[in-house]
Amino acid sequence: MMLNKTIFFLISCFLISPHFLAIGQTDSLLRVLDNLKRQSPNRLEKIAELQLEIAMAYYQDRDFQHSLQYHQQAGEIFLSSKNHEKYSECLHNLGNIAYFLGDSQEAIQYYQLSIAEREKLKDLKGLASGYNNLANVYNRLGDYPQALGFYEKSLEIKEKIDDQKGIASTLKNIASIHYYRDNYVAALETNLRALRISESLKDTTGISFVYNNIALIYEKQEKLSEALDYYQRSLELKEQTGDTQGMATTLNNIGSLYQTKREFDKALIALQQSLEISQKIGEKEGISAAMNNLASIYEDQGQMDKALELFLQSQKIDEEIGNKRGMLLSITSLSNIYFNLKNHKLSLRFAEEGIILAKQLDSKAELRDLNALISKNYEALGDYKSALYHNQLFHAYADSVFNQEIVRKTARIEAEYEYDKKLAIIQAEQKALDLEIEKEKQRQNFQKRLLILSLFGLIIIASVIFLNYKKQKKAKILLQAKTDELEKANQVKSKLFSIIGHDLRGPIGSLYMLLGLYRKNQMDDDEFKQLVPELYKNVGAILEVLNNLLRWSMGEMKMIKSEPCPIILHEKSIEMLNFFSTLSQQKMLQIQNLIPEDLAVMMDPNHLELILRNLINNAIKFSNKGGRITLSTKEQEDIVTVAIQDEGLGMSQEEVGKLFQNTLADSKRGTTGEQGTGLGLNLCQLYIEKSGGKIWVESEPGKGSIFYFSVKKASVNSELVH
User: Fold this and answer.
1) Which of 327, 318, 329 has the alpha carbon at shortest distance from 365?
2) CA triple 642-559-544, angle to 5 deg
3) Which pTM was predicted?
4) Segment 531-542, tens digit of pLDDT
């Protein structure tokens, strides 16, 4: 009796469509929907899609009423927009909701409408799912021929589209029909076929379901140890996968088995666990099944009050969900309890309700037992005529059941013989299959090892090639660097030869010729004395060029030493301006020295002198007659920026870009033909950077140039050098 109750609960575990795996929080989806309706009320298709997503989220939370509402709203929009695919999905989901709410007829209508839409769309996968779920409803109603017909339609489509997981699921449902019809050989064969597919797919949920079905078959054949073993295997897999609904089902079946074995303590523990899980997830059919079985145990133990309370609760739940077989079991038990309690009127009422249900389900055994109860109640109430009538009905149904039992027992004996014979064949086939699987695993493992070795070899080869490539690339970069360095050295060498051959050879040649004339008495003392200032100037220029060459070569050989100390910048600038006073007077230049008199900087005195001399010399060299040169500073925390500005020739941006590139700059003649070497700015950059500063220039053709360099400010308490 209890096994029939729990098997329907087992089937419902596989009703839930994959579409209901909703993602996201319901509240956030509702906010998005409200915003969309306010901002874009005409985007009906998008609104419907959000409503469908919300409906799925509610379904996952087992809030069926809200899920129903949003599915209906979405379905209406999809129908009006002629989106038949989404409309059929809504209909299918509404069928699922109706099933779990216990309205079997409404579920059938929704599934049939969904199937009609999917036939138009030629949606084979959707059709297979629809036929399978429609069969589940008829299975619950006990209409096994209808259920089997729709299961077979679903199976045919799934085989056509090669949906292996779906094939296994439908096979398990077909096996349940064979089980109800006492065809245990067919049930076992179908379950084992489903098991092979589930194992090949590594579908733990499917495997656990088959184990549960096999256990039910063994229990029917009174092979209780084998049944318990398979129940425990099923429960272990369900615990691993977190299948709470499946756990509740198997625990319910385990409790029923322990009751059969009269081990009531173990039965109560298992059934209580099943009830708690079903209550937690809101699974009404599971709650009813657990309560019915618990009530049956309390009845066996003589605890009638507890049994009565639980039977009434179970009956109420079964009425809500339309589970007629469950209702019949509870009503029959209630009628029997009230008879034992001598409440004959209530016993009669429940028995008469049971008669109606038993006739609908064509359950002759229940009709026999209920008529016997009615007869006893009428006899106790003194209505002997009615008692006799129902006693006659009792015997009529008893004879019918007896004949049916004879047929069943004969069929069962034959079936058990066939079962044992076929089981041996199935086990042999299973061993052969296991052997093939083991061989295939060994072959795959060998291939994996071979692949790993090949891959390892390829990695080694690739590593060698890559390292060789890196070495070659590094060598190529070094070679290019050496080539660039050599090219630069050649350019410098050419520049030096140009300086030595032109800038030094010319002035020295003039001096040599002048001294030769004086030596040959072709020039008197007065004439020689007149040329002495010019001679002094030329020798000074030669000496400056030689000094610059020496300093530059020392810089190239990294031999420059810097000994910074505090220096009054104004004093050093006055010294350099006095040095160039003759040249500035010749060009009639106006020189402004705006450097503060007390400003001290931290630098090597010789380096600062060279920098100022070269930059002031360049300013004079490229200034026009009557022009202006300005020396100024800007202080920022511990840094002083020195600016030397002229109003002379200026430079283009291209010329500016060639400066300060750590190469010798091209020489350019001054406004009165002054010749330079190009070494000055290079030395300025070298010494400034050596001191931790920077040098840069701003210039515009015809408007002059401003050369800037930065230097560290000396601290207040530093000892100054004058």
Assistant:
1) 329
2) 60
3) 0.47
4) 776 666 666 666
